[in-house]
Amino acid sequence: MLQPFFDRYNSIYPLSEELKNTLEKELEIIEVPKNYHLLKDGQRDDYVYVLLKGLLRTYYIKDDTEICSRFMEEQHICMSVISFFSRKAGYEYMETLEPSILARIHYDRLQFIYKNFIEFNYTARVMTEQYFTLSEQRTYLLRKHTSEERYVLFMQQFPSFLQRVPLTYIASFLGMNLETLSRIRNKISK
Asked: Which DSSP string do the residues of the chain spell out, in sequence order?
């Protein structure tokens, strides 16, 4: 079950057998149903997750409206960044959009691995860079483009989400209402 995770990290930097064995002992595999909340507003995120199978979204609530901030698919790292790193309660929800299998590790155990396995520090830094790149892409997507351009870029950058994520969540992620997204989709399909 963890082999795709190891393969992804090995593609960044070779993991020692000792590190793989430690990760196998430390990572807890959990299976959760669709619409399961791994985290809610007001909770502190104590775990970092690797999504082995399934799909997640993160969102927050503003004026009684859910605002989708991220979608994560297989082999992606999942956490509430501010809560996890600040060690304080956060404002995000993390919810499964499909039945999901995740590997998770507690913050304290992750710090132990960072301290004892320098190669994991390197791979985690590269993964963090990739994560922040995705975050910047979303910021750019929302601030620099029209609604139609945002949807076209979303289709190009995240084609797998088009079949897996409900349109209402995609509209929220793109900063528009469902009616606007429907008009754009109809226009593009003509």
From this structure: --HHHHHHHHHHSPPPHHHHHHHHHHPEEEEE-TT-EEE-TT-B--EEEEEEES-EEEEEEETTEEEEEEEE-TT-EE--HHHHHHTSB-S-EEEESS-EEEEEEEHHHHHHHHHH-HHHHHHHHHHHHHHHHHHHHHHHHHHHS-HHHHHHHHHHH-TTHHHHS-HHHHHHHTTS-HHHHHHHHHHHH-
